[in-house]
UniProtKB/TrEMBL annotation:
Annotated source species: Loigolactobacillus coryniformis subsp. torquens DSM 20004 = KCTC 3535
Protein name: glutamate--cysteine ligase
Pfam families in alphabetical order: Glu_cys_ligase (PF04262)
Pathway: Sulfur metabolism; glutathione biosynthesis; glutathione from L-cysteine and L-glutamate: step 1/2
Taxonomy, superkingdom: Bacteria
The keyword Transmembrane appears for this protein: no
GO biological process: glutathione biosynthetic process
Database matches in InterPro entries: ATP-grasp, Gln_synth/guanido_kin_cat_dom, Glu_cys_ligase, Glut_cys_ligase
Reaction(s) the record says it catalyses: L-cysteine + L-glutamate + ATP = gamma-L-glutamyl-L-cysteine + ADP + phosphate + H(+)
Protein keywords: ATP-binding, Glutathione biosynthesis, Ligase, Nucleotide-binding
């Protein structure tokens, strides 16, 4: 008996250990066209794929997350994978958002998924045995393992003597307790999350002619088989023996044909007792049609609280286990087949359970998000009209949920594709990182987020990508050289490329002494090692001494040295070079607004900053309204309070940098090839495999040649170029540059 778990945790003030664990999610869903017919197209992912695969049928997609230490990380990846799947589907395909399938065609028209010959044989056999209808149900499975820290702590402080220092025996006993209590109280989950009140008219003649809470979770009509009732959960020994006997007798093809609400997973069935249970597969959740990902973060947080409570709840006495679990199955059937249109027959038990769960949450100081999830579910027990099964019953039209399901599915797909440069679940990352993650998931690369705050990813177990497309492709020396603008200029000059003339200054006084010679034309003042457009001042015409001094002080505040260069008129273009090839070219239009003749400049800035692709962690940076804005406006004879005339463009910055809100206009196809050669030469001069090269060009259609090299002036080279500005430009054709970067990483 493991009834001292809660006591020991409170004794040592380790209640937090109870809410730790490891989580993974598997979610199935039928691919259908916009009329609700099963898809006849292959899954658009190369198989085998670690995250997206077929379930029973070719039309049935399954998304499977990695295992994470928190529910939040698991749910984040589920959101991202769902978006990748939806974006990959043909335009007329959507994901059916219900556990019960749409109206099915004849069995002959349902294509069984065949990842291997053995897999096809297995699926054909279960189709004959159980029928296609049952196999076409879909569900959400939660894979859960207990925290090793929790288990080791409990074993060492209290349970080692009871189990004769046999940690595996204790470990298995804890999982068995959790399993028994899960089966004992799963009726609570069926009430709270049941969402299959009816089936399509041609699903089966055996289904009831009235609404229920969950056909899928019921023993009579759901995704179960006789074996699920013949395997004992009284002990691990009995579980293994019963399941193995069913396999040996030919009743089951293997453990995966054991359609129980809970499966115990380990190295193998034979080693389950000796090597230990690795995790539980909890298989009885209906797909939530009101959540874009089939379940919500609130549901997952409640699950986390529910499982923690089951571990603390008293164990089922060994001799009573068979009887208790039979009664529990009957309770679940009562709830599953009960009417969603009224109070459950088990209302007293539901209320009692939720009260006990609430007390547990308070006593063990459950995290706030778990307590909030509990409040949501307590409300469902108080008012059955808040349950998904009741809400679905209100959506039935003509005896069917098809119209509702199609409407929900189309809404979810539109949400996924509306902003392709953002990856749901990871919108807190920089736009480049989101695009790389999405591309990696699409390819089936194993992905780890090593540092969420810094945006550092690991792909395919060995490739590390940092902010600004930082990879092993660029050496540390090359990156260092590109960060130093003076070194960059010298290397470019040695390669025969044209760069702006200029000088370096470390003191304001020294630069002011040279002012008379410098200020005969427009100037650019910038930090020698500045990044992201900070500290840069552009004077398109000769500045006054006072303004020049202000610019110097600003540059020297950002760095210890400043460069003063001649201003080069023309348009700035960003060339993205990967492995000696220009993959994209974008015009850098300085941060700007266009007047409408009515609104003040500040209001125009606010309006433009509300555009979907502009903002924090989006492809285009917000337009600035700061001291540098005022300084640059002043040079143009303007101020913030002006009302620009209709169609009149006002530049908020004179420096054209994406980091300070510049618009990216794709010109990849228009740019003359000669300038692309210049960009490649600039990247090679700094020995960069991945580079963003900024070049001033007067006419992108007029070739640069040896007779007129001044037609292309290289302003700067960065080893950490933005990718998202090319994938989602302000105007023009999106360029698949993240795919190009991953191609290069994976082939070298």
């Amino acid at each position: 008996m493991l009834d001292q778990i809660g006591t020991q945790l409170k004794k040592y003030q380790h209640e937090a250990f109870l809410f730790a664990g490891h989580y993974g999610i598997e979610k199935e869903g039928q691919r259908v066209n916009t009329q609700g017919d099963l898809s006849q197209t292959p899954l658009p992912f190369t198989q085998p794929h670690p995250y997206v695969k077929n379930d029973f049928a070719q039309a049935q997609a399954e998304v499977a997350t990695d295992y994470f230490d928190t529910c939040q990380q698991t749910f984040q990846q589920l959101q991202g994978l769902d978006a990748v799947l939806l974006r990959a589907l043909p335009e007329n395909e959507i994901l059916w958002p219900l556990s019960m399938p749409p109206a099915l065609p004849s069995a002959a028209e349902i294509k069984i998924a065949a990842p291997t010959a053995a897999g096809l044989h297995y699926r054909q056999k279960i189709a004959r045995k159980y029928g296609y209808q049952m196999q076409m149900m879909s569900a959400v499975h939660v894979n859960f393992s207990l925290s090793e820290r929790l288990m080791r702590f409990l074993f060492e402080v209290h349970y080692h003597a009871q189990f004769n220092d046999d940690y595996i025996a204790f470990h298995n006993a804890a999982y068995l307790k959790l399993t028994q209590n899960y089966l004992r109280y799963r009726y609570v989950l069926t009430y709270l999350f049941g969402a299959s009140p009816l089936a399509a008219a041609n699903f089966s003649t055996a289904v009831p002619d009235h609404l229920v809470r969950s056909l899928h979770a019921s023993r009579r009509f759901g995704y179960v088989n006789r074996a699920s009732q013949e395997v004992s959960f009284q002990s691990i020994t009995a579980y293994v023996a019963d399941l193995q006997q069913l396999i040996d007798n030919g009743e089951l093809q293997g453990p995966r044909e054991f359609y129980s609400p809970v499966r115990l997973h380990g190295n193998s069935l034979a080693e389950l007792e000796s090597a230990g249970i690795h995790y539980l597969e909890l298989r009885n959740l209906d797909i939530d049609p009101y959540a874009a990902d089939g379940l919500s973060a609130t549901t997952l947080n409640f699950f986390r609280l529910f499982l923690a409570y089951l571990l603390v709840t008293p164990s089922v006495p060994v001799e009573q286990a068979p009887t208790v679990l039979v009664q529990a199955a009957a309770q679940n059937e009562t709830v599953a087949l009960g009417s969603p249109l009224g109070v459950s027959r088990l209302q007293p038990q539901l209320q009692e359970f939720m009260q006990s769960l609430g007390k547990f949450a308070q006593d063990f100081q459950a995290p706030i998000e778990l307590q909030q999830a509990l409040q949501t579910m307590q409300a469902r027990v108080v008012d059955y009209r808040l349950t998904p099964s009741y809400r679905l019953s209100e959506e039935i039209n003509g005896g069917s949920l098809q119209q509702f399901a199609l409407r929900q599915a189309q809404t979810f797909k539109q949400q996924a594709i509306a902003q392709p440069y953002q990856l749901p679940g990871y919108t807190q990352l920089a736009a480049d990182s989101q695009l790389l993650l999405a591309n990696a998931y699409q390819r089936g690369l194993a992905v780890r987020l090593l540092d969420e705050q810094a945006g550092v990813l690991q792909l395919a177990e060995h490739e590390v990508i940092g902010p600004g497309a930082s990879t092993r492709l660029n050496s540390q020396t090359a990156v260092m050289a590109s960060q130093n603008k003076l070194v960059t200029k010298k290397l470019l000059g040695q390669a025969g490329l044209i760069v702006p003339a200029g000088a370096e200054y470390t003191q304001v006084a020294t630069a002011m002494a040279d002012f008379a010679d410098l200020a005969k034309q427009g100037l650019v003042v910038k930090p020698k090692r500045g990044t992201k457009g900070q500290g840069i001042t552009v004077f398109q015409t000769a500045p006054t001494a006072e303004l020049f001094k202000v610019a110097l002080e600003r540059a020297l505040t950002t760095g210890t040295s400043a460069l003063v260069e001649n201003y080069v008129p023309g348009t700035v273009y960003r060339f993205l070079v990967i492995a000696g090839r220009v993959c994209a070219v974008a015009e850098c239009m300085p941060a700007n607004v266009v007047g409408d003749g009515r609104q003040a400049l500040t209001a125009l800035v606010v309006r433009k900053n509300k555009q979907a692709n502009r903002g924090l962690n989006r492809p285009l940076r917000p337009l600035p309204l700061d001291g540098q804005t005022d300084f640059d406006l002043q040079q143009q004879g303007l101020q913030r309070s002006i009302i620009p005339a209709r169609g009149n463009q006002v530049n908020l910055r004179l420096a054209a940098t994406f980091a300070t809100g510049a618009d990216a206009v794709d010109v990849t196809a228009d740019m003359d090839a000669s300038y692309k050669e210049v960009a490649v030469a600039a990247a090679q001069a700094l020995q960069l495999q991945v580079a963003g090269v900024d070049i001033v060009i007067d006419n992108l259609y007029q070739p640069v040649d040896a007779a007129h090299p001044e037609l292309a002036t290289v302003l700067s080279v960065t080893a950490r170029p933005e990718l998202a500005v090319h994938e989602a430009p302000y105007f023009g054709t999106a360029q698949p540059v993240t795919a190009a970067l991953l191609d290069q990483l994976l082939t070298k």
